[in-house]
Fold:
Amino acid sequence: MQPIMREKRFAPLAVLVLLAGCGATGTEFKPELNKPDGNHALLYVYRPDTIIGVGNADVPFIHLDGQRLARIRIGGYLAIPASTGRHKLTTTESLLGKDTGKVRGQTTVAAPAGATVYLRYTEGFKRITPIALPAGVFVETTGEYRFEFVPAAEAALEMAKTKALEPEGTAQ
Structure:
């Protein structure tokens, strides 16, 4: 009987540790820190602080023009310096921490010289199916995963609740 009680006490702690890995942990958003020069643009991509998707430990990866940048964690943002012109942003699924390459959301964004562009990434789930694997549980989802252009004033309010995401490079 004693081992069962011990497991019940550690269950809430295990859930908190799992959920802590889903959110951003960097510095808070400060728009005055990053300004594009006259020859480049600055793309802010953020994922609002929400509980939707918080239980999924496999956080999607974000890519710019095919180059992996970071995981797009809940409550996080990226400030991406970009050359002028059109760029493709995508998110790809993660399976047990590895980038599967399967595209979830995507958009093409025009980056004018000297401009700052704000994009909100959101996920709306229609179906969530847990699949037991030998090394854990994979959560298969279907839904709507999208980037939305957001006016600067609205983005500033939402991004005040976000933190910088750490770049991960291209290592898998």
Notes: Helices lie at 2-20, 152-159. Strands lie at 40-47, 61-64, 67-71, 76-83, 85-95, 98-111, 116-133, 136-149, 163-164.
